[in-house]
Amino acid sequence: MRIKVVPMEPEHLDAVMAIENVSFPIPWKREAFLFEILLNETADYVVALYRDQVVGYGGMWLVLDEAHITNIAVHPDCRGRGIGRRILQELIKRAALRGATKMTLEVRPSNLIARKLYRDLGFEEKGVRKRYYQDNHEDAIIMWLEDLRARA
Questions:
Q1: Nearest CA among 115, 63, 125, 60 for reference residue 87
Q2: Could you tell me if 87 and 114 are in contact, meaning their C-beta atoms sit under 8 angstroms apart?
Q3: Catalytic one among 50, 66, 106, 125?
Q4: So what's the pLDDT on residue 135?
Q5: Residues 85 and 40: beta-carbon distance below 8 Å
Q6: Which pLDDT score, from 0 to 100, does residue 150 have?
Q7: What are the backbone dihedrals phi and psi of residue 137, each rounded to the nearest 5 degrees, phi first?
Q8: What is the pLDDT of residues 45-97, one digit of tens each?
Q9: Domain residue spans in the chain?
Q10: What is the Cα Rg of the chain in Å?
Q11: Which position among 36, 45, 90, 118 bears the catalytic label?
Q12: Bridge pairing between strands 43-50 and 124-129
């Protein structure tokens, strides 16, 4: 599967919203993505394209030397094909190029596939935010990836 990862643009948002709505119990709104890609100077969002169709996306905030993954999702029909890995590898590279030295994210304990992907890419579980998720009050595992430049 030949995947191209490019910066997210407003014309990608119909497909991004379709993936967002089937991926998360409390999806972000279109306006939130528009703010992130057009106005938020600390944000960096990408989409994964297969045959020019959006099949996944991810984003992060960059504050000082830290990158914080805000969102990553792959269309359900395309999961298990390495697209999430490609998106995350691109975000790691882009964060390192912008001066970040470490990256963090939150993940549900029940999301075993995502946790394995993050561990495979070098993230380590460093803490827990109790009752973090609003939909079911599931905890969030806080994961960190250190030394981004060596991994980019």
A1: 60
A2: no
A3: 106
A4: 87
A5: no
A6: 84
A7: 60, 25
A8: 999 999 999 999 999 999 999 999 999 999 999 999 999 999 999 999 999 99
A9: 3-150
A10: 15
A11: 118
A12: unpaired
Q: What is the CATH number of domain 3-150?
A: 3.40.630.30
Q: pTM value?
A: 0.94
Looking at this protein, which amino acid is placed at residue 131?
R
Q: Which helix or strand (DSSP H or E) is residue 140 part of? A: strand 140-146
Query: Helix, strand or coil for residue 25?
Result: coil
Which residues does residue 6 pair with via DSSP β-bridges, in sequence order? Answer: 47
For the question of residue 124 being annotated catalytic, the response is: no
Give the bridge partners for 62, in sequence order. 67
Respond yes or no: is residue 132 known to be catalytic.
Answer: no
Tokens of 107: 């993940």
Would you place residue 151 in the very low, low, confident or very high pLDDT band (cuts 50, 70, 90)?
confident
